[in-house]
Amino acid sequence: MSDNTTGAIRLQAQQSHYREHSVPLYLTSSFTFEDAEQARAVFADEEPGQVYSRYGNPNVDELIRKMCFLEKAEDGFAFASGMGAIFGSLGALLQSGDHVLACRSVFGSTHQLLTNIFPKWGITYTYADAAKPEEWEDLITPATKLILIETPSNPGLELIDLAWLGELKQKHNLLLVVDNCFATPVLQTPADYGADLVLHSATKYIDGQGRVLGGIAVGSKELIAQVRFFARHTGPALSAFNAWILSKSLETLSLRMEKHCENALKLAEALEGNPALEKVNYPFLPSFPQYELAKKQMRLGGGIVTLQVKGGYEAAKRFIDNLQMASITSNLGDTRTIVTHPASTTHSKLTEEERLATGITPGLVRVSVGLESINDILADMQQALGRV
Ligand SMILES: *Cc1c(COP(=O)(O)O)cnc(C)c1O
Which cofactor names does the annotation list (predicted)? Predict the structure, then answer.
């Protein structure tokens, strides 16, 4: 894992004549030119240079360079949020008549995009189940342009075999788009399996402290050129301030992920068998249904543990209300441990049937395991479960 850390720390925007050590914030809407000829040349892409912060900005470019390094990508574009990155990328690559094959357990707003927004422009979709890979090939049609997945999924923690999917997309000449938000490039690099575009909500582990929204898409120069054209002219640019925060955060991403994963594994191991729980789900627990796959494609198990509380919604609510330290909020990937009840919050807009199809039962509680002392996290969870 250590081979990834240096670039995330040392790739920096060019130093100014002040020789500052930490990169300054470039809070400027536009950039000036020496003369009219330079302005013409920069606009014509004959000379490199900044133009306008909707197009690019030194802080934003630094974040993109680091993410390209971590995700082994040629180029990228940063967005104001993760959804900006998903909409901006798919909007750029898809046309009327195209079909998307997506895993059923996509993020809630991605589901809205596929089911309620893209159909307005004649873009259709089919959902495939992570648990039934044998069905995926039959769901590909002549109109299928791309495959969109998340692994591990939110909040079901379903995994998809990236090596298998990389071969399937190759065989059918499709684009493979991976939302790598849960794993981060520290735990898995989808480009190793042939992913064409990797998307992130930087709001989660990349920020890591619950401060700012951000998103990014990275991939080949050719695909990013299309994404950049679409995004530059539709306006979802990431602010320089948020880019500065996110770029600084990348310096500690690897360290933080190791600790999130260490705490999550300890929590999952300690809670497995708790009499108030039906099940504890964590990719690196041997009881996890896709344990072998998790070990094969993830360097560590991730920072999310899900708990199936016995007694459904009422019991899950009591567990959450009994917690004394953990925060009740919908974000994840924070230094602070967070609990979320997906069925009544993040996934409440789905039908009961849609929720159950992706493992979101009434008793499911998602725990984003933070960086507090594991003893304190565990004590909080155990006392809350003891009083359910
Ligand atoms: C949060 C999240 C998003 C959306 O990101 P925002 O920054 O909130 O827009 C997309 N995908 C996954 C997997 C997420 O967890």
Answer: pyridoxal 5'-phosphate
